[in-house]
């Protein structure tokens, strides 16, 4: 072999090696990691503990991002012509009292200060059916509940109308208490991937968290009646060949009955009619694929559904969880904290629901269970001040995210919305609010939307959590909520279990529905 050929071969091998190495480097850089800050850092003499999850990594499924401002990408309409304007399907609330209003006073009457109104009944705490009715099982019983019905109405707690009294110093006030999670022995990284049953696990080690990917698939079956309606009903009609006006009306009725709401239903039916006229649908599979595509599009898969829970330089992300009582705010806060901790984040919970001591106990139980510190105030303390203290503490302790569980009602129902606006304003004096999650109970259907509108007026909602989807046959409510509010559904509650929270994925959801 002559020297020229040998040199040629050597050069070719070197070039090939260089290409492979460069490819590997680029591939590595492109890999997205949710846990970019997981290496334990040493600050002074304190080692920052980042893994409180027993080594679990969420890995996929949930997506977290850094918030810039608490604004939201509005979905564009199905024709792509512009942002969806929340639809004016204001059926039952026009001129009616809204959430937090005194039912006796029309909404458009002059605002009055907080007065003594009769207390609403305490939300009935459901009997826990699983390990995850966490707080409920742990909540101290009767003495912490709302005042007994037969006692005279409690002395009117007359608070000045929501003037934003902010703690004057940056320090955490004495009125709040910080409950730290039990200390865990960090698991050395080389041991982390597998849980060694034979070693003495620390007594406070966190329980294992179920994989987050594919959780939405569990809805299949649970939404069985919707499947019957949309899946069998609509698909049956679509697959039956030529559709007359009666068939289209039947399709419309089916979608409305599945809680899609009139505007989403109209959009879906229009799209189906156009597509059927131009495409050659012959088989049941083709009809299914078409329906799936139309429904997924209607759910605006392009929307950013990441939870803005990643810290800023020097300050934690702040997540406010709002909604009426009993929708699942505390449970959702706990479930989400669990995922964040599992993802290596340091989480601090603020118990700004001071209406019910049991609510703070419930949150504290979650905190202990997932490994998050909890800031709580005295019963009936000013929620805004507790929220402020929680954020101040979070900044001081350098946590990644502060999640604030707010009240769904107050001692004086009239002031709920004022109070919530105040909580947000006061917190913002300390750190920007990145995410405002509105928790809605899917089982209450249209009433949930009426509630949502009122909340949307007071605090800029950036995402919706639809809970109790496991308890409804009407999965269509997701379409309705998004269309109505113009805010993406980001998470769904699938049960009372600690891991029954899933990121909302349009495709998987429609799959479960059909
Ligand atoms: N089936 C089901 N139950 C849920 C879900 N989310 C919450 N719950 C249950 O709903 C009940 C109320 O939940 P909470 O978290 O206490 O509700 P809340 O909004 O904080 O209520 P208040 O503290 O009274 O304002 C509890 O029994 C929860 O276990 C869900 O996705 N599915």
Name some characteristics of this structure:
single chain; 514 residues; alpha/beta; Rossmann fold; Four Helix Bundle (Hemerythrin (Met), subunit A); two-stranded antiparallel ribbon; 13 strands; binds guanosine-5'-triphosphate; GTP binding
Description:
The protein is of the alpha/beta class. Among the domains are: 134-141 and 163-184 and 305-504, P-loop containing nucleotide triphosphate hydrolases (Rossmann fold, 3-Layer(aba) Sandwich), CATH 3.40.50; 223-298, Up-down Bundle (Four Helix Bundle (Hemerythrin (Met), subunit A)), CATH 1.20.120.140. It has 14 helices and 13 strands. It has helices at 3-30, 134-138, 219-222, 224-239, 245-257, 262-278, 284-298, 329-342, 357-370, 383-397, 416-428, 446-458, 477-485, 506-513, and strands at residues 42-43, 46-47, 64-66, 176-179, 307-310, 317-322, 347-352, 373-377, 401-406, 435-441, 463-467, 489-493, 501-503. The strands form 3 sheets. A 9-stranded mixed sheet has the order 4-8-7-9-6-10-11-12-13, with helices on both faces. Strands 1-2 form a two-stranded antiparallel ribbon. Residues 26-60, 69-74, 77-162 and 185-205 have low confidence and may be disordered. Residues 123, 126, 133, 136, 323, 325-331, 353, 356, 359, 407-408, 467-468, 470-471, 493-496, 500 line the site of guanosine-5'-triphosphate (GTP).
Helix content: 25-40%
Category by helix and strand content: alpha/beta
Overall 3D geometry? Answer: flat
> How large is the count of helical segments?
14
CATH class of one domain: Alpha Beta
CATH architecture of one domain: 3-Layer(aba) Sandwich
Strand order of the largest sheet: 4-8-7-9-6-10-11-12-13
Compute the CA-based radius of gyration.
26 Å
The CATH topology of one domain turns out to be Rossmann fold
Assess the beta-strand content as a share of residues.
5-15%
- Please identify which CATH superfamily of one domain we are dealing with: P-loop containing nucleotide triphosphate hydrolases
| H/E topology pattern | HEEEHEHHHHHEEHEHEHEHEHEHEEH
């Amino acid at each position: 072999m002559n020297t020229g050929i040998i040199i040629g071969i050597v050069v070719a091998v070197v070039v090939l090696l260089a290409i492979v190495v460069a490819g590997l480097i680029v591939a590595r850089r492109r890999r997205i990691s949710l846990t970019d800050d997981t290496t334990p850092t040493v600050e002074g003499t304190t080692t920052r503990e980042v893994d409180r999850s027993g080594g679990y990594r969420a890995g996929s499924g949930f997506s977290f991002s850094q918030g810039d401002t608490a604004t939201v990408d509005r979905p564009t309409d199905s024709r792509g012509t512009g942002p969806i304007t929340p639809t004016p399907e204001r059926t039952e609330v026009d001129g009616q009292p809204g959430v937090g209003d005194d039912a006796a006073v029309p909404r458009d009457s002059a605002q009055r200060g907080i007065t003594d109104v009769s207390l609403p009944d305490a939300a009935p705490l459901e009997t826990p059916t699983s390990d995850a009715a966490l707080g409920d099982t742990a909540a101290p019983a009767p003495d912490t509940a709302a005042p007994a019905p037969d006692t005279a109405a409690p002395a009117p707690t007359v608070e000045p109308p929501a003037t934003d009294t902010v703690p004057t110093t940056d320090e955490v006030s004495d009125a709040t208490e910080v409950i730290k999670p039990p200390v865990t022995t960090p698991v050395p990284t080389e041991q982390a991937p597998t849980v060694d049953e034979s070693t003495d696990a620390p007594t406070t080690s966190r329980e294992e968290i179920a994989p987050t990917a594919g959780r939405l698939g569990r809805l299949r079956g649970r939404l069985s009646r919707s499947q019957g309606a949309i899946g069998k009903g609509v698909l049956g009609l679509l697959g039956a060949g030529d559709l007359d006006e009666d068939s289209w009306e039947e399709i419309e009725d089916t979608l409305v009955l599945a809680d899609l709401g009139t505007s989403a239903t109209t959009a879906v039916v229009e799209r189906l009619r156009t597509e059927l006229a131009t495409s050659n649908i012959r088989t049941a599979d083709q009809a299914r694929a078409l329906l799936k595509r139309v429904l997924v599009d209607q759910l605006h898969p392009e929307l950013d559904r990441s939870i803005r829970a990643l810290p800023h330089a020097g300050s934690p992300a702040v997540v406010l969880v709002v909604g009426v009582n009993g929708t699942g705010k505390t449970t959702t806060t706990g479930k989400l904290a669990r995922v964040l901790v599992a993802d290596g984040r340091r989480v601090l919970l603020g118990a700004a629901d001071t209406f019910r001591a049991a609510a703070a106990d419930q949150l504290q139980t979650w905190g202990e269970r997932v490994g998050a510190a909890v800031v709580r105030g005295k019963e009936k303390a000013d929620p805004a001040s507790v929220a402020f203290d929680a954020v101040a503490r979070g900044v001081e302790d350098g946590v990644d995210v502060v999640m604030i569980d707010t009240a769904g009602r107050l001692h004086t129902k009239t002031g709920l919305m004022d109070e919530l606006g105040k909580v947000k304003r006061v917190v913002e004096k300390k750190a920007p609010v990145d995410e405002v999650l509105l928790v809605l109970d899917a089982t209450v259907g249209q009433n949930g939307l009426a509630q949502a509108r009122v909340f949307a007026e007071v605090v800029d909602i950036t995402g919706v959590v639809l809970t109790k989807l496991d308890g409804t046959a009407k999965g269509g409510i997701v379409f309705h909520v998004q269309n109505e509010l113009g805010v993406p559904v980001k998470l769904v509650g699938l049960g009372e279990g600690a891991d029954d929270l899933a990121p909302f994925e349009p495709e998987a959801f429609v799959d479960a529905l059909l």
